[in-house]
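Inverse folding, one chain.
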């Protein structure tokens, strides 16, 4: 019996060690920065199924719109810049690098275009982080409006070019 008790204790200790290691690996793979990096890679590739795996369940229908947004930047590259806390909300800030913006058939050159894109992260279940697109929309909208205004102030010729093409882009009554 003494030998069986020792074997049982050793077996339980081994099980606990394996469970702790697996738990740590799951936690590391699902940290906010790891999820943000995976999200950036999937978005740059415009991988719909990969993105669906990384967003909250309620945001599955928003993934095609996110891909349509990414398609505005034909040569989009994304990197995680930082994870920050904004008023109690965990936010992954991605740096988007691009040299063109495509609006329909029009393409505008943007030399050394860079833009910080904030995406809200939310913990689902105990260890799993996901991108919350619903919470990200206002953050993105504000960032994009500010960036567009800054570009148009710095490059008035771009505004003129956009206004010239506007009739061909605007919907017909």
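Residues assigned per position:
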């Amino acid at each position: 019996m003494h030998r069986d008790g020792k074997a049982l204790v050793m077996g339980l200790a081994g099980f606990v060690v394996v469970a702790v290691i697996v738990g740590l690996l799951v936690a590391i793979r699902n940290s906010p920065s790891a999820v943000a990096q995976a999200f950036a890679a999937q978005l740059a590739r415009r991988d719909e199924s990969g993105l669906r795996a990384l967003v909250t369940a309620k945001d599955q229908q928003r993934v095609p719109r996110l891909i349509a947004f990414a398609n505005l930047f034909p040569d989009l590259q994304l990197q995680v810049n930082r994870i920050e806390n904004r008023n109690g909300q965990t936010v992954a800030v991605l740096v988007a690098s691009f040299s063109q913006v495509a609006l329909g058939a029009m393409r505008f050159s943007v030399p050394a275009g860079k833009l910080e894109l904030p995406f809200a992260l939310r913990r689902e279940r105990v260890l799993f982080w996901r991108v919350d697109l619903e919470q990200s929309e206002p953050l993105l909208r504000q960032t994009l409006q500010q960036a567009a205004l800054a570009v148009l102030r710095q490059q008035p010729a771009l505004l003129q070019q956009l206004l010239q093409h506007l009739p061909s882009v605007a919907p017909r009554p």
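The longest strand covers residues 106-124. Strands lie at 77-86, 89-103, 106-124, 128-132.
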